[in-house]
Amino acid sequence: MQRTFTPPAPTVKKSALYGNLTARFIAFLVDTTLLVFSYSFVLYGISDAQQQVYTWQDIFQNGVNVNELFALSKTLFLNPYFIIMHWLYFTLLHSSPKQATIGKFTLGLRVTDLRGKRINFAQANLRYFSKIFSLIPLCLGFLLLLSTRRKQMLHDYLSRTVVVTD
């Protein structure tokens, strides 16, 4: 009795598609909206400063005063609470089991290392702080995504991460 050997059918592993500029920008807008919205509750709850009492009607009542808008934005965004909240939001969520912020998760994006595995907290910190280098040359580090095979931005290269779609 002669046996014939039939090789098993080849398994084709689905290759990960990388996150494009549009999806990553929309995820950024979702994350920024959530951060500013939640931060405004924190800021209004802990501050007694006069700038916190302004409403949009008060700001635009006598025309736009650039000095008041600048003071308001300085109070909102150059506050240590916002910087810490921003840092914790991105680093904790990128290194979490979901591997994504709320905006990225909503669009089906994940942040992984080059092997497709979850990044740790140190790598998430490196990714967060290396975004400064993406900003410095006129935000050209973000546009690097348009010319790379893995759709990586400069901070992705520096931290050895990729953004993939599920």
Automatic annotation (TrEMBL):
It holds the Pfam family RDD. InterPro entries: Pra-immunoreactive, RDD. It is a multi-pass membrane protein. It is found in: Cell membrane. The chain crosses the membrane at residues 21-46, 128-146. Residues 18-159 form the RDD domain. Its main location: membrane. The keyword Transmembrane applies. Keywords: Cell membrane, Membrane, Transmembrane, Transmembrane helix. This is RDD family protein.
